[in-house]
Amino acid sequence: MRRSKRVPDVKQREFAEFYRSDQAACLRAVLVSVGDRQLAEDLVAEAFTRAWTSWHKVACHPAPRAWIVRTALNARVSWWRRQRREVAWDGTHEVEALAAGDTGLDPALLAALRRLPRRQREVIACRVFLDLDTGGTARVLGIAAGTVTAHLSRAVASLRAHLVNAEDLEARP
Amino acid sequence: MSDRETDASAVLDTLKDSLNHIGMHASAEQIMAAGRARRRRRLAGTAAAVVAGAAVVTGVTLGLIPPTGPATTNAAGGVHIRTVAYTVDSQNDGTVRVTWDKRRYFEDHQGLQGALRAAGFPVLIKVGEFCRGPRDAGTLSPSGVGPGVEKVMKGQRGSDANVTFVFSPAAMPDGKQLFIGYLSPAQLTAVGGNPGSVERLVPTGEPLTCTTEPPPAHLRSPGGPPKN
Predict the structure, then answer these.
(1) Which of A114, A164, B188, B195 is buried deepest, with most CB atoms within 10 A?
(2) How far is A156 from chain B (nearest CA, A)?
């Protein structure tokens, strides 16, 4: 009896520790990918909930943070497909512009991220916020390593242009 | 490291630093509670389907419910479901008495939806989405209730966190169902906790228009009267 009580406690502690240490990185990665703070939080919460219900598998995963982000992004696709089948949307579910006060984010930076193609955002999410190398990013996203490098290079070029333009605007009288 | 690599690193560092303050609002305990509720919901959904099937079979066998007739039930074919999150009980007068725990209700909304439907009350429950019919002007009271809802759903708050509702399947207009949209935790935060949900009568068999935009915040004193 004592053993059956102890095992769930250990499981809960392991999951709670995983959540506390990795939730922020996962949220930032998903936020960069979807460009919407509230949607990102909902998707990451859904992914962690699935991780908890399958913790015996996720705990053994070689890259549990990547599992969370992949699951969150897959949940977004499933969610959109399901909504398309069930209801006619009025379009407001895809938030176009968030005020800085709502998210604590630089709206110009958020807009620059949103202008990037989805794959470029996902590569940034994996490389920058999950600290995955090129090979790990390629495995998580299911693309070639060379494609990862190309996407990252293009994304950096676009963001650099945005940052330079922003600095130029600030420097003007 | 080349100038180009240094430059790329600087751009990515700037991006990383700009999101340094971002973190989840939900706690690990809330996530685990949601996971546990999901397991219960799956079990409750199975139980509700079994109960509904048994109720229909019993009703048809005893001649109480015509095979194509309304889904109202009486004591002989009643539904009585109890979970940690809610209870659903058919009453002799044809109404359905429901209690749910305000702390848990949104975690098990699909189970509650299945139980209410099993009890003969047509309902559509969602979290974080708010739907209306194609001819609905979208009018809501400050507490998030649409026209006509008070005829099919009445509530009273108990001494604890539980709320008791009485649903009236017989009062539901033909071709209509009750839509209940619970605000997600993030939406609840945005409106300061009020309203906690939106209720409307919506048509069945027609596409609904849904949005994730929550209703306006409603300021009222804590512990005020429940809806209806």
Answers:
(1) B195
(2) 6
